[in-house]
Each structure stands twice: as structure tokens, then as C-alpha cells.
Amino acid sequence: MAQGLNFPDKFLWGTATSAYQVEGNTRNNQWWDFEQQPGAIWHNDKSGLACDWWRNAEQDFDRMQQLHLNAHRLSIEWSRVEPEPGVFDHRALDRYREMLGGLRARGLEPMVSLYHFTNPRWLEARGGWENAETIIRFQNYARTTVKALGDLCQTWLTVNEPLVYLAQSWFRGIWPPLKQDFLAALPVFRHLLYAHAAAYQTIHACQPHAQVGYASAFRLFSGLRPDHPMDHFAAELKRYLFDHLWIWATVDGKIRPPLGVGQYYPPLANSFDFIGINYYTRDLVRFSPNPLTLFGNEQFSPDAELSDNGRDGPYSEYYPEGLYQLCREMQQFGKPIYITENGLPDRDDDQRPRWLLAHLHQLHRAIEAGCDVRGYFHWTLVDNFEWHEGWNLRFGLFALNPATQLRTARASAHLYGAIAEQNGISQELCAKFAPKLADKIFSAGAAD
Ligand code: GAL
Question: Is 283 helix (H, G, I), strand (E, B) or coil?
């Protein structure tokens, strides 16, 4: 490319999904039950057929191929694989074999998550992640799944965004089991950590050359008012709990406060082969004396550009530098980095092309600065069922009408396809979709 941002050879360009959000008729887990409760989901939306992947994911795999993508991240639905305790459904595993084979046949490298927020109904009835027994159950499920699918997948994520699950389900109390109970959240956190460690060991025992990690959500909290030390204290506390506590436990195996008093748990130490970063936004924090807020309320920067509104206001702020900052921060661990999710809700696609380009520009800066970034997975290919927001927030490169299942390519799909094809961003491409950003990135002497 004459002038442009070139990405490394073999860089993975993909999209990301989770089973519940795309498969349809996923009836045997806690989310399906939750959906039936009036008011649980925005407009009482139902996941219904979702994107109809259980019957026909292949139609969307074709779309990925047409966009020149070379990877895709999906998740396995535990409740399909183990519909009753200890009873594994080999037809479900066969369907996943078919899906992973279908990806590979189209030149798409699969990355597979074992846990993405949904619990089999029977597990939830036994207390879900509050029950320590879930650790061994998860390990058994991981073993069976990896034995069945390991020849088709090299890269595994044990759990997705454990801290988002905790925050939504035990802190804000808006996802099942709808609790606002910090003390009950602590054992859940520990159990998720131990389950991750157990699955990490088990996957390697079954498949020695597998690459195993997890996907963490990062919110990059910082103090709202520069001269208010308590804003910074509250932001640091939230960064510690949300962005750092988990990752450090998997680095050195120490169970730090408030989860423990620094005990060493050997299976946790060095229990990841790569870093998975999910990044959507940063948060600014204003101090609050209320301990139930963890001493701070979050807000977006008052002058930031904001994405579409969710139930409680805008979903995210435009802060692409955050992706650069996170990669640089994660560089200290000396492991490869994947951006396992990044995207925004933008129904009319009037922001997505520029946001996408700006985030990839920052990712390129991080690579230039020495970060070993191996791939980028955009959330998501086709609009899907966005948890308690239902069909409200539209993250897709393709718009979906859930009733007719008709997909329509947004301009961003063409853009992302061109980026994957070029393995980079040419000046012309950037100028076509985001002229001001192109001026900034490519003008002579630009700082970056
Ligand atoms: C992540 C989550 C995804 C998707 C995305 C967009 O936190 O892993 O399942 O919902 O956010 O909100």
C-alpha cells in the first residue's frame, strides 16, 4: 500500500459473537427464564430466533468470507452441551463441530469461548456461581468440549468478562440472579477465578499446544475533576477491582483483598497464554461518600461524542486512545494480545466507520510501539440480542430485521471488508470514510 497503516502478517481480522445472542431458541438456561419476566428486557423483547445460527450460522460465515475476514470468535452454549447434570449431548457437540469446520473451510480461524454469561437451568437452580461445586462442573464441561472440538480449534477463552457478569448480576442487579449484594459477589468472583484456572489446566492437558486465555472487559476509570484527589481515589479503586484484580491473580496466583489476604493459589499463576481485551469505553468517576457506589459515580466526559442510547443513557464515549493505552499497559505481561471485542451501538451507522478507523489507528500505534497484537475481533457481524437491552442496541456491521431475518450491509461492513482485504488502512480508504481523521493521521508530520 502506498501510504497507509499496515498491520503485521497473519494478523487476524474477525468478528465476535456469543451463543445466546445469535443461536436462537436457547431455552435451557437462566437468560431464557429471565426474558419471560415482564420488564426484564427492553420493550419485553425476546431473543426468539436471534440470528438463527443454531440452524444456519453458515449463511453468516459466507458473509464473513465475502468480507475477506480470516477469523471469528464464538462461544459454546453450556446448556446445549450439558442439558442435564453430567449428561452430555453429542448431537449438540456435532453441531458445533459442523460450525467450526464450516469456519475453517472458509479460511476463518476459530477462537472459542467456553463461558459467556449463560448458565444451564439446572446449574442456576443449584446456586450457579455462588456454589463452589460449579468449579468442578465447569471443568468437566470444558474437558468434554475440548476433547470433542480440539482438533478444530487452537485458541480457547475460558470465561468472558467475569467482572461484567459480577457487576450486572450482583452489584447493579439488572441481570439474573438480580442481586445487589457485594458480599455474595466475592465468592462468585473466587469461583470464577478457580474455574478459569481449572479449565486452563484441563485444556492444556487435553490439547498441549492450545492457546488459552480469557476475555476481560476494561473500562479505564479515571478521576473526573483533575484537582479532586477523592475522584482519583475512587477511580483507582474501581480500576483495581474491575480492571486489575482478576488479571493480577492470573499472573502471580495471589488472591488479593477483598477476595483474600494474598494467599498463593498455584494453579492460577501464569494461567493465560495471551491477553484478551474487550474495550468499548472509558468512564470518568466523581467521588461519592456512599460505599454502595464503591465511592464514586461514573459518567462520560462532558464534551465527549457519545454512541446510541441504551436504557440508562448513552452506551459509550468516543475515546479511541483507550485502546492504545490498554495495549501499552498489557505489554508488561509479555504475552500476545488479541482485541477480543470492540465496537459500538450505532443503528444508522453514522459513527461506526469513523470510530472503527480511529480505534484501528490507535491499535496500529500500539503495534508500532512494540505491542504484540495478533488480531482484532469486531463486535459484531450482525445485530444480535443485546442482553437486557434486547434489540435496542445495534452493534452489527449488518443490520438485522429479527422478524424476517433479513440482513442489510451497513457501510461499515464494506469498510471492514476492505481493511481485512488490505490487511491495513490505506489513506484513500480512510479519506473515503472519515476525511477529517485521514487528514489527522496522514498529514505530513502528524504526531502519530
Ligand atoms: C460485552 C459482551 C457482549 C456484548 C457486548 C456489547 O460486554 O461480552 O456479549 O453484549 O458487550 O454490549
Answer: coil
